[in-house]
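Following up on my earlier message about iron/sulfur cluster. Here are the inputs again, as you asked, copied directly from the submission form:
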Amino acid sequence: MDSEKLTDKILEIVPEAQQEENKQFLTFLIPPDKLKTLTTHLKEEKELDFDYLFCLTGVDWGTELGVVYHLTSTSLNHSVELKVKTDNRETPEFDTVTDLWMTADFFEREVWDLFGIRFTGHPDLRRILLEEDWVGYPMRKDYTDEVNIVEL
Amino acid sequence: MKEIINLPVQSIEEEEYHINMGPQHPSTHGVLRLVVTLQGEIVKKLQPHCGYIHRGIEKMCEKDTYQQIIHLTDRMDYLSAHINNHAVCLLVEGALEVEVPERVKYIRTILDELNRIASHQLWWSSFGMDLGGLTCFFYGLRDREHILDIFEESFGSRLLHSYYTPGGLMRDVHPNFQKRVKDFLKYNRKKIKDYDRILSGNVIFLERSKGVGVLSKELAINYGVTGPSGRGSGWACDIRKKHPYAMYDKVEFREVLRHEGDTYSRYMVRIDEMRESMNIIEQLIDNIPEGDFSAKMKPIIRLPEGEYYQCVESARGELGIYCISDGNKNPVRMKFRTPSFVNLGVLDKISREMKIADLVAIGASLDLVIPDIDR
Amino acid sequence: MGVRIKNMKYADFQDNETLELFEKTGGNVMLTTIDDVIDWGRSNSIWPLTFATSCCGIEMMATGASRHDFARFGIEVYRASPRQADVIVVAGTIVNKMAPVLKRLYDQMSDPKYVIAMGACAVSGGPFFYNTYHVIRGVDHVVPVDVYIPGCPPRPEALLYGVMQLQRKIKLETIAKERKTKDDGRRRTIKL
Ligand code: SF4
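Thanks, got it. Here's what our run produced:
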């Protein structure tokens, strides 16, 4: 499917989605509560058929926390980039996509570990890289640790 | 006495128990810890615990310049160091829209493929060793040394090279380079037959690998298992074909595919891939054009504001780099989508209902590099 | 090591050759033939533990394999169990999560035991010294180290040289004094 049709299709499913400028991928900013609807449509619908989640990234933009999803379809060869953002730095929370793409399992655990973003509905949300009793989320921009970090 | 005999006895077969494999275990190839739930000898569940070598490379990248980041990517997947460097270089070059000289593209492709062969040879050695054949270890590493010699002659380092810089190479290759590579190819063509003779047709090996750890194509896509492991399940996921970079669109090579999805097919994909890599090198080595070894670059690289994604085919699968830049000399966020991290996710799924001894074979066939998982 | 000399210059202290000479020529009363025999045996049959966390481990494997062949120097069989090993070659970065495991491995080894810190990471944190939150800057914060081998990664030859330094060090040992294996804050080093 070419990008115009894809844009129309996504806007039809989630009218609130904002398209962002990006040279490589078709990028949309999605309101967090619509994420579940959109991803389910993208995965299940035959003419969209996004069956491969190739990257899931947690990002700290300074004030906002968010997650970036890179999706592609192995049969139809089109890709899309989705973003969700939230201002809530205390208890950020998004819906999980593990039920659609199993690769999201480890990715989401990593994002929880390093950014402290919860994923509702994730089957086993534990820290994956750091110890269970680690305090804080080290990839956040405001993370400080006087003992372990030697600043250059 | 009677009462004791009549006590309900739970047989060992039904009871579940846990075994802790790692973090210091010779067959996990590093410091991976697997908590295995067993019933008798059958694996019921498996929980990977990683992070025993989590070095925070992504955090370090946020304070580093792009030239410095290249040196960190070496240390992620040290067996395909060149290919990791290539990913960062392509990302920077793509963002700045720099056209690198032809010569650089040729040399990069050749080195990438040499690196892939070296990586597969090491994998072959340790795979054989895990299944009990120590001979493989010595054969594989012996042949790998020849590649390392070529590397060493040109840029003085055996394992971690950091030879690519944004825009080109650090310096030109050694005048002997072409001859050495050609000699190596001749040598390796002979030796690769030995690999087949030792392992590929070995009855014990076939028993232990055929039908073990079957991964279907749908699962491979859903779990995102790329690289030789994904291609062993019949998923054409080679980035060199899908999104060609460097010289890969100009050379002819076959994307090795197998459809059984078991340990043996993953094994055979890698063996055949070594042959394909040699074919690629053979097509390029004679016609490396003369010219500069680097494009003109500013000493301080600032990427324009925006987001970039670059993927390359490393020896283990798709290595993706997602970078957000705000126009400064260091990135806001640098994410490495490393193949081993993703491939590890499927280990639980495919090793269930297998014997614990098969777990070693399955784990080895996924070719995990632990710092690549933990970064 | 049981050398305690008041009137020896600090510079000489760093010099291994002076030290060896001193030992041989009567610095230690208890240096007997038994010592010689035991040290000869120990130093020529060091069994390393298969312990590799990252990139340096590959170079350690290469050292053990065909071309460089560890075994020539008596550092023969890799042992998978710490109870059978004499020396632990810390090849690679040690991070916070791994440090307790390393300490336990070290504790499980039987005396006499030795530690070689291989690579910049094990020596000092190496490339991961700055700006990272999860790396131990030098394995000597966790276990006492006998020989430091710099490099990122050190070449196999460097590892071989380091092992030979360790052998030299073992040859100076005496059964008269107990070896210090608990970390007492002093760093026991051999200059490379
Ligand atoms: S010193 Fe260098 S090669 Fe060795 S583990 Fe550290 S980063 Fe890797």
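One observation from looking it over: The longest strand of chain C covers residues 87-91. Hope that helps, and feel free to reply on this thread.
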